[in-house]
Here is the input.
Amino acid sequence: MTTVSNISDFTTELNEGFYSKKILIEGDSWVSHPFPNVTNIGDQIDRFKPDDYLLLNIAEPGDEAKEIFMSHGRQMKRLKRLLSTSQWGDTFDLIFLSAAGNDIVGPEIISHGYIKNKRDFPNLLGKELIADNFYNAMAGVVNGYSRFLKMRDTSSLNENTPVITHVYSYLTPREVGTHIGNIDFNKGWVKKHLKHQGIQDEDEQYEILVEMLDAFYRRVVKLEASFKNFMVVDTRKLLLKNGRPDINLWFDEIHPNIRGFKKITKHIRKMAQQRDMWNL
Here is the structure.
């Protein structure tokens, strides 16, 4: 498979070679993690495919769904060009999205008021500390997905192209961030912010994280009833062992390792094949 990361290279490849299948990936670090010892879903999809496939992966680590799907935003305009104009795009055989993880975790837990401070609400436990701001944010994320799917539906080139997304996996809040070997660049994206909000109990931290992922799933899966050729693969429990996240399948706090991503990608492909949405 040939993989490119920008529209210019994609256009060049289309003009210079023959490709039997074309795949588009957009999203966050779960499809574009920069460290080679981690890989990601994008890398795993690449490994599944024959040499005469062309994969355009325009995902970037840290991207948020609210930015990717913003009306008249740079990324949404780029997606529209790819799906709707023969000059800059083409008819894809599969569109894979990985977007919402960065809308759920990170400093927004504090700065956007997603989680109440337990010092102010000592009688609230676990998911009771999740504020309305978070649920409103998830509604906005799903509206963004809907906006993208409506755009896909109006594209003469890609109105029938399958769109597949996933829901991330339950993880253990722990202060393990980006690192190379023994060099740490941060302390993670979840636990440190929950601790800042006075939430020290590990069971409470885990319950909050589970509900945050569940809230995204409950909303986004409803879109399957409104849009044809759209599938949400439930990957929430895929990396559990004895009912809790298996740390051996994780690279850091929010990213699986090679074995974890391989397991997730195989599951996504299997589920999509059962729905006749992975004809690659």
The chain has ten helices and ten strands. The chain has a mean pLDDT of 94. The CA atoms of residues 110 and 214 lie 20 Å apart.
